[in-house]
Amino acid sequence: MTDKKRKYVYSVFWNCGLIIIGTLIQTVVLKGIAAPHQFIPGGLFGIASLIYYQTDWLNPGLLYLCLNIPMFILGYVFVSRRFLWYSALAMLTVSISYQFINIPIQIDNQLYAAIVFGAIFGVGSGTVLRSLGSNGGADVLAIILYQKYNLGVGKFSFGFNLTLYLVCFFSMPADLVIASMIAVFIAAQMIDYTLSLFSQRKLVFIISPQSEAIAEEVMTHLKIGTTLVPAVGAYRREAKTVLMVVINNIQLKRLEEIVFTVDEHALFIIENTFNVLGSTFSKRKLY
Question: Residue 195 is inside which H or E element, if any?
């Protein structure tokens, strides 16, 4: 990542843009799908929705605003002021836009509605989490655990919501709770996918007697670095050199063509990576 790109990614304009776009996407499906079907969307907004459905007091947007106060105290203590203010922007955008946005999304089937809601809500939530803030609420805890223990944000979200839904079973129809759980499971997958969308790379291992020649071709034509790793064949105990390359999906086919043009008998091994940090790739995000 160049210094210019790094400054842009850390800029207020970029982060506020991600937060506002992501939270507006969430609000559209919260009002257009979740509210008509009385889904429990998960997180603190899910708790706010449950309170509203049971008491008809205030509305989920305003209740969500109140429940976020202790979360922001945690964010201030354990993360940073910058993280706190960006998360506050997300929370305020959801709470305020919930009062005004009302775009009906007509889906009568409860299961279909849960699937569509989870997919779109997950994209919106993941977009916010690509910024230096969070969606507020339980996401503050998720970011703290991610930084300290590398616990996936989507996995924490699903675990938190599973506990919430166990409580919901005592006060809501089982079919509705199960539909809400399906929606949140899909949202959790979409959050992780959205977070890795622009950071995912392919890790390629190339085993060939001509690995150095292949490395020269790769560096010349693809303009990317390579690593030569010493190895020993287990059967004949012969010394070998394994070429390791980290590459994106777009360049993968060109790499394959270079390798088999130089050595048609090469062994070409591809591994998916969730994220690559450092060097010329993405920098570690500092909240």
Answer: helix 174-196
Does residue 103 share a domain with residue 82? Answer: yes
What is the domain count for the chain?
2
Q: Which of 166, 164, 151, 183 is closest to 43 using CA atoms?
A: 164
Give the span between the Cα atoms of 9 and 191, in whole angstroms. Answer: 19
Specify if 229 maps to a domain: yes
Residue 46's Cβ-count burial label (10 Å; 0-12, 13-18, 19+) is buried
CB distance 64 to 44 below 8 Å: yes
Q: Which of 82, 280, 117 is nearest to 190 (CA)?
A: 117
pLDDT tens string, the chain, 287 residues long: the values are 545 555 656 688 888 899 999 999 999 999 999 989 988 887 888 888 888 888 877 788 888 888 888 887 777 777 777 777 888 888 889 888 888 888 888 899 999 999 999 999 999 988 888 887 777 777 777 777 777 777 776 677 778 878 888 888 888 889 999 999 899 889 888 887 887 776 667 889 999 989 889 999 888 888 888 889 888 888 788 888 899 998 877 678 888 889 999 998 888 988 877 665 555 555 555 55
* Domain assignment of residue 285, yes or no: no
Residue 211's domain spans which residues?
A: 201-273
What is the CATH classification number for the domain harbouring 252?
3.30.70.120
Q: Encoding tokens for residue 68?
A: 């976020």
Of 196, 215, 248, the position where a domain reaches its end is 196
